[in-house]
Write a structure and sequence with these properties.
Number of helices: 22
Structural class: alpha/beta
Strand content: 15-25%
Largest sheet: 8 strands, mixed
Distance between the termini: 54 Å
């Protein structure tokens, strides 16, 4: 069961002789009363359900206690008429309201100096519990009371997670004296507390890019207002959701979502709608202007959103997010600009595979780029394309910047447990890395002229079944891959160790690699399972395709009762 927050009413009782009137706010009208505390409690309990778990505290100086809390004989001298008149104290008056919760008097000093003011602060703070909802009445008391309430509220928000739900005062001086009885307004100044929240949260946004606290404080304060429209509240709540989602996308490096810009663009539209509504406090409009200016560069479905995200990371010192978005944005930009070169565009998952290809190209060391015999995987499979790309000047320069960013990102992602790059170096290089990456988006990436001349196609039959013994359908299928070359599959001793098998595999791979330098090689691997597994993995890592042969098993019964088993070739199938 979810426990409800405790509601707490706090008011200061003065020493004046208070005349009766009716207090009014919106549609609410109180009973005719001397005490604003009674009128405020009546309003609060009419608008919301209060229970025995809630509490009220009336702050009393010694003089206020004798003059207005417990009035001796229920009578007192009227300052104006100089006559003794009936005057029921606040304690007895509240008791007669039959409230469901206790309202206690709390003794406080007069507040004549700074020490006494801090005593009052401590006395009130100690009455609060974690998660309380506070309702302040500041009609009576000291001139510093409004400031004390605002400061105390924010202090308690931080240390006790309280919420300031209401700050009001009864403006007796503005009463309608012609009405009988007189009618005075209850003025709500809760928005001043909200303004402090907006200011603190706005500062958090300006300094750190955090919008969650700001949008939540707007949503809460406007949601409690009686003058704003339901449409405005709807806009604000949606704005809260969109801005928070945008912040989460930056924090968690959601590249595709940032690229689309859906949430941030919707937030821009909602800010325009909110600012066009009535009853919006002017200070809030100015803070919304600041947020709007920060997200203006974002648009729908554009690579420029990644540029704007990087600038955002730089502005708000989002180090890890910035390095990650740098590296991935470079790959994204290159893949988009050179999409026509994608050798996997027709394949399922071809986009992801092309990203991995470019990641490997950009991440190659200088030595590996020059030594084609070290090329592996898709770089080796697309040798002509790889050779052409690695020979381009802009690719060489891009690899230098990419390597610097990759090094810092790896240090961050591995929490500094690998390598010895200091935090100072990572932070010092951050702005330069962002600037380089943002500048890279302005590069006109030219596509290379790829050598389209085809290598000689070679089909290596690495098995114990020489091609001379194959039937015509298997030979025809093999010739589709290239000229056939037989390479006997070694006999593997059952006692051979894993190291023995690995050595045999390495020797065969070295032999095939030499053939692969001048030929487009496909290897038919069929034999002892341990060696087959090693060969397929090692050759595949070098970008050399491997296939196996598939067949149907046909059993014939002879007249003499013998069974004859035949295997009919069906097709070659690639190892994946």
């Amino acid at each position: 069961m979810i426990s409800m927050a405790r509601k707490v009413f706090i008011s200061v009782l003065g020493t004046g002789f208070y005349g009766k009137c009716i207090y009014k706010r919106d549609e609410f009208e109180s009973d005719n009363t001397c005490f604003i505390q009674c009128a405020t409690l009546q309003m609060l309990t009419n608008n919301d359900s209060w229970t025995s778990d809630d509490h009220g505290y009336i702050l009393l100086t010694q003089k206020a206690e004798t003059d207005n809390w417990i009035v001796k004989g229920d009578e007192r001298e009227n300052f104006i008429s100089k006559k003794i008149e009936e005057y029921i104290g606040l304690e007895k008056t509240i008791s007669g309201m039959n409230l469901p919760f206790a309202v206690d008097g709390v003794s406080i000093p007069v507040g004549n100096d700074e020490d006494e003011i801090w005593q009052i602060f401590d006395i009130v703070f100690e009455k609060l519990q974690d998660g309380d909802e506070l309702y302040f009445d500041i009609t009576h008391g000291f001139r510093y009371l409004p400031m004390l309430v605002l400061v105390l509220g924010n202090y308690a928000k931080f240390l006790k997670n309280i919420t300031v739900k209401s700050i009001t005062y009864g403006n007796f001086e503005a009463r309608n004296k012609e009405a009988v009885p007189n009618v005075a307004p209850i003025v709500d100044i809760t928005s001043f507390s909200a303004l402090q929240d907006w200011t603190f949260s706005g500062a958090s946004f300006v300094e750190q890019g955090h919008v969650r606290n700001f949008t939540e404080s707007i949503s809460l304060s406007l949601g409690n207002s009686s003058v704003v429209s339901k449409r405005l509240i709807k806009y604000v709540r949606k704005l809260n959701k969109d801005l928070n989602t945008f912040e989460e996308q930056i924090s968690t490096c959601r590249g595709n979502e940032l690229f689309s810009g859906n949430n941030v663009c919707e937030a821009k539209e909602l800010i325009d709608k909110v600012m066009g509504q009535s009853h919006i406090p002017k200070p809030l409009l100015k803070i919304l202007d600041v947020i709007n200016d920060a997200i203006i560069p974002f648009d729908k479905d554009t690579i420029d959103n990644l540029r704007s995200s990087l600038i955002w990371c730089k502005r708000y010192k989002l180090i890890q997010q910035g390095y990650t978005l740098c590296q991935e944005s470079i790959i994204t930009y290159v893949c988009m600009q050179l999409s026509d070169l994608n050798p996997y565009k027709e394949e399922k998952g071809g986009g992801r595979r092309y990203r991995d290809y470019w990641s490997a190209i950009l991440g190659m060391s200088v030595g590996d780029a020059k030594n084609e015999s070290s090329w592996k995987g898709d770089i080796a499979k697309n040798r002509n394309l790889s050779r052409s790309l690695l020979g381009m000047e802009w690719v060489r320069e891009a690899r230098k910047g990419y390597e610097r960013i990759k090094q810092k990102r790896n240090q961050l992602n591995h929490a500094g447990f690998t390598g010895n790059v200091s935090s100072h170096d990572i932070i010092k290089s951050f702005d330069k890395s962002i600037d380089w990456c943002v500048g890279f988006f302005d590069e006109a990436l030219t596509a290379p002229v790829v050598d389209t001349s085809t290598l000689h196609k070679l089909f290596i039959n690495l098995s114990n079944h020489p091609s001379s013994q194959w039937k015509e359908e298997q030979l025809c299928a093999a010739r589709e891959y290239g000229d056939i070359m037989d390479m006997p599959f070694p006999q593997i001793n059952p006692d051979a160790t894993a190291e023995d098998v690995n050595s045999i595999a390495n020797a065969l791979v070295d032999k095939i690699k030499v053939l692969g330098d001048d030929n487009d090689v496909v290897v038919h691997v069929m034999g002892e399972m341990g060696l087959t597994y090693k060969l397929v993995r090692k050759l595949g890592f070098l970008g050399i395709r491997c296939v196996c042969s598939t067949s149907y098993r046909v059993v014939k019964d002879e007249e003499d009762g013998k069974k004859v088993v035949e295997f009919h070739f069906e097709r070659f199938r690639e190892y994946e």
